[in-house]
Design a protein that fits this description.
The chain has about 230 residues and is of the alpha/beta class. The protein has seven helices and seven strands, in the order αααβαβαββαβαββ. Strands 3-2-1-4-5-7-6 form a seven-stranded mixed beta sheet. The mean pLDDT is about 95. Bound molecules: S-adenosylmethionine (SAM). The site of S-adenosylmethionine has 21 residues, from strand 2.
């Protein structure tokens, strides 16, 4: 029997990046996990507690409208967002992740689709009242960071909100990712195209009080400021 640790995410990522393919390893990892020979490190039973906590404390604007979950992985956050009352689309670059998620949640009202953040459908531009980006941008190398951030920001509708959750990197710190956590300047750079930062905070995880993450909320004005 194959040990689930035989295929590890770091090894797949290193090989994929060396071949100039920054995202190909995700599909390989999900496929290996489906075959029982790998573990998806971010697979969890519960939605991200920082998303849950944010939604409890702050009624998200646009409930009843459209939400988009970026890099939805195995669906835990998208299933939470749909329960908040949004018509929810969730996308991932990995076909196996999307297929596995549909199998996990066969009756889900979430529209799970395969799509690439770096080349999203044009109809998603400025289309969503809530966009949730949790640890996907940090999973992509720094060479595509600015593009990835601009794409995420570009999908927020006028009057809509963007929630970003990410690991923290000190400015100038070198990391051998993945992941490549975000600096404060990178978090602030989501404020483009009419989005402005409402709150940028470093919060600890309920399960690990010593581990901090960025949680940032941006809003796009109904009438963009000139
Ligand atoms: C670190 S995982 C996080 C998954 C999920 N957001 C979570 O918090 O559990 C990053 C996810 O982003 C997806 N991903 C990476 N690059 C992507 C891209 N260019 N477009 C869409 N999804 C992407 C991966 O397949 C993976 O599921």
């Amino acid at each position: 029997m194959t040990n689930p640790r035989d295929v590890d995410a770091t090894r797949l990522a290193t090989r994929s990046l060396a071949q100039g393919d920054p995202t190909g390893w995700f599909e390989q990892l999900y496929a290996a996990a489906q075959a029982g020979s790998a573990i998806v490190p971010w697979d969890a039973d519960e939605p991200n507690p920082l998303l849950v906590d944010w939604a409890e404390r702050h009624e998200p604007a646009g409930v009843g409208g459209q939400a988009l979950v970026v890099g939805s992985g195995l669906g835990r956050d998208a299933e939470h967002v749909v329960r908040l009352g949004f018509r929810t689309t969730a996308f991932d670059i990995s076909e196996t992740a999307i297929r596995t998620t549909r199998e996990r949640f066969p009756n889900s009202p979430v529209d799970y689709v395969v799509a690439d953040l770096l080349d999203p459908p044009s109809e998603w531009t400025a289309a969503f009242d809530l966009v949730v980006e949790s640890i996907t941008v940090q999973s992509m190398p720094l060479s595509v960071r600015a593009d990835a951030i601009a794409r995420v920001a570009g999908m927020v509708a006028a009057g809509g909100e963007l929630l970003v959750i990410s690991g923290i990197r000190v400015e100038g710190e070198h990391v051998d990712g993945p992941p490549w956590p975000l600096t404060r300047a990178e978090i602030e750079s989501f404020a483009v195209g009419g989005l402005r930062a409402i709150r940028i905070e470093q919060v600890s995880l309920p399960t690990r009080p010593d581990a901090y993450r960025w949680r940032a909320v941006f809003r796009k004005d109904l009438t963009p400021m000139s």
